[in-house]
Specification:
With 396 residues, the protein is α/β, with parallel strands linked by helices. It has two domains: 20-48 and 289-391, Aspartate Aminotransferase, domain 1, CATH 3.90.1150.10; 62-287, Aspartate Aminotransferase, domain 2. Helix content is 41%, strand content 15%. It has helices spanning 20-29, 48-60, 70-84, 99-110, 126-133, 154-160, 183-195, 224-227, 237-240, 255-267, 275-287, 289-313, 339-349, 376-391, and strands at 35-36, 93-96, 116-119, 137-140, 144-146, 149-151, 165-171, 199-203, 230-234, 248-251, 318-320, 327-331, 352-353, 355-356, 367-371. A hairpin with a 2-residue loop joins β5 (144-146) and β6 (149-151). The longest helix is centred in the C-terminal third of the chain and has 25 residues, at 289-313. The chain is globular, with a radius of gyration of 21 Å. The N and C termini lie far apart (47 Å).
Length: 396
């Protein structure tokens, strides 16, 4: 790791900056003085190298239609090799204005109305809407919580595949349960998909936030056969806090599938790029490794700190430390509150705002999803607020 240190304790003021995360509670919900720990972006500025690259481009003054330089694609190829030991080729690459738009494009491109698409719930909720809004049918293959760990239920998956099943959407690392899938798990899943001729669309946007003892493995890197049936969705947006620049990467080794994707991208009129997104992605993948290494160390420190705090001072709530992502689940079932009252408790009593568990699937009734990508002082204040509210909780 580089000796250069970045000050993640400093954070950045985000109120009144058109920040969905920070301005939503007061301006939409009408509740002031809330610590927002919901939508998945971070309360840290992007790496200085990224900020400087965007500033330099902005200073030029002309923001016309951009051309994607060769160096943009090269930065992606080098990053995947260096960080994930995955050798990809330029001819496999395309792009999208975000991973969720790319997911919708893939559903439109490779499936037909009425087709079945498998999702492994509880999972990032736009998976459900992407399927349903395009006239396809969601088939849930729920994860199971066993031995304090979420696991795939592959026997259930086999039973739910039929002649109308076309695709499986994988979340890797998994949001919101925080699993970093092991090679054996991915191989077993891929074997089923190959046997039943299913396409795999793998959302790997959280690949860069993985903690000690775990390693992200792109499922398409398992074998050429798996790669030929996989569309990988990637982006630097979560890793480097540049989601607002709407630039994502689509990796499709199969030339037929890639051509279909590109045709649909053009049919939807989505071929124009965000000029600042292009600059930020290249700068992040070229210069951001040291910053990212130190960020991941800081985030894991936040996870360990929160886990100790809940265990020692708020035992009524169980903190489920993730293996990856900067998101953690809080098991609040011991409080005995209906979900609506639980949400109100955190928002109006504790003045901390989370994503409620059930939006990710019925498996998370009684849970909340907590975003810990913030300075330690912000996390501490949130935990103190939760502890105070729980201690005043009348139903104990």
């Amino acid at each position: 790791m580089s000796e250069k240190k970045y000050n993640f304790d400093a954070g950045i003021e985000r109120r009144n900056t058109c920040s969905l995360k920070w301005d939503f509670c007061e301006q939409v919900l009408g509740v002031p003085d809330v610590i927002p720990m919901w939508v998945a972006d971070m309360d840290f500025p992007a790496p200085p190298e990224v900020v400087e690259a965007v500033k330099k481009r902005a200073e030029h003054g002309a923001y016309g239609y951009p051309f994607i330089p060769r160096s943009f694609w090269t930065s992606i190829i080098k990053w995947m090799k260096t960080r994930h030991n995955w050798e990809i080729k330029r001819e496999w690459l395309s792009r999208a204005p975000g991973v969720v738009p790319a997911l919708n494009i893939c559903i439109q491109t490779y499936t037909a109305p009425g087709d079945k698409i498998i999702v492994q719930s509880p999972v990032y909720y736009p998976f459900f809407s992407a399927v349903e809004n395009n006239g396809r049918r969601v088939v849930k293959n729920p994860l199971v919580y066993k031995n304090n760990r979420w696991q795939m239920h592959l026997e259930d998956l086999k039973q739910k595949i039929d002649h109308r099943t076309r695709m499986l959407i994988l979340c890797s690392p998994h949001n919101p349960v925080g699993r970093v899938w092991e090679r054996a798990e991915l191989e077993a899943l891929a074997e089923i998909c190959l046997k039943h001729d299913l396409l795999i669309v793998s959302d790997e946007i959280h690949a860069e936030h993985v903690y000690k003892g775990h390693k992200h493995i792109p499922i398409a890197s398992l074998s050429p056969d798996v790669a030929a049936r996989t569309i990988t969705l990637q982006a630097p947006s979560k890793a480097f806090n540049i989601a607002g620049l709407t630039t994502s990467v689509v990796i499709i080794p199969n030339p037929k599938l890639l051509n279909l994707y590109k045709t649909q991208l053009e049919n939807l009129g989505l071929t124009v790029n965000n000029i600042f997104g292009l600059v930020a992605l290249e700068a992040a993948y070229t210069y951001g490794a040291a910053w990212l290494d130190q960020l991941v160390e800081y985030l894991e420190g936040n996870m360990d700190y929160a886990q100790r705090y809940f265990e020692e001072r708020i035992p009524q709530i169980k903190f489920l430390k993730p293996e990856g992502t900067y998101l953690a689940l809080l098991d609040c079932r011991a409080m005995g509150l209906p979900q609506k009252e639980l949400n109100e408790f955190f928002l109006k009593k504790a003045r901390v705002y989370f994503d409620e568990g059930p939006i990710f699937g019925e498996e998370l009734v009684g849970f909340e999803r907590m975003n810990l990508a913030c300075p330690r002082k912000t996390l501490t204040e949130a935990l103190v607020r939760i502890e105070r509210a729980v201690n005043e909780f009348p139903y104990r």
